[in-house]
Amino acid sequence: MKIHFYKYQGTGNDFIIIDNRNWSITDLPVEKVKFLCDRRFGIGADGLMLLNPKTGYDFEMKYYNSDGREASMCGNGGRCMIKFAHDLGIHKSNYHFIAVDGEHEGEIDGNIVNLKMKDVNGVTEYDNDFILNTGSPHYVKNVSDVMDYDVFHRGMEIRYSEKFAKEGINVNFVEEKGHDEIIVRTYERGVEDETLSCGTGVTASALVCHHNDAGYNEVTVITKGGKLTVRYDRIDENTFKNIWLCGPAEKVFEGEVEVKP
Predict the structure, then answer these.
(1) Is pTM, for the whole model, over 0.90?
(2) 2-108+249-258 adopts what CATH topology?
(3) Distance from C-alpha of 151 to C-alpha of 228, rounded to nearest angstrom
(4) Less CB within 10 Å around the terminal CB: N or C of the chain?
(5) 124-247 CATH
(6) Which residues are catalytic?
């Protein structure tokens, strides 16, 4: 079976995207997704997404991690999907789509794609660190000299620790550079490695580092793949609304790939 695909990236977080508005793909087994995302034998990506039709919405975003399993929300994936929809000719001043964690909005402002994230209603302290869900579950740990930190091994230790091994958790290591700027590196479950950027992780890290700041906040987040901005309204120490993840997203290339039946 031949599949026409598109490759997009948002701050180095890269995705295979397939236009599935005609329902040409009704089933994607784990092994096929793993093959397509494999960087040596397939196309190579952190994840794969289908743009599906959905009544009442501009589209549905269906997301798979590179391990082949359908996954929770991906922030950079959502931003790339908005850009992909625009490139397909779905032109909107405000996009309205649905993903696994519910409804989302999106906007394109020049080269910047803005994605409205789900509200966050809980930040839990755990072992001097923090746990919260921004569409995907995240563990946030403040460290010094994050660019020299062993993110892969330390992230794996936390992700596969007794508390988190069964369901998995994404692990973020954060260095605060100032009141409104942080550096974030993330070990992602499902990819089982550090990625150059993680949208839901960037969002979680921004909320944790500034969860005591009242009112409106805007945080610049530096990742290995580029720079993002997180904007949000803090209602109280555990409640955040009107959360937006903002940054670049662009097409890399497109092509066809043969997938064995």
Answers:
(1) yes
(2) Diaminopimelate Epimerase; Chain A, domain 1 (3.10.310)
(3) 20
(4) C
(5) 3.10.310.10
(6) 74, 198
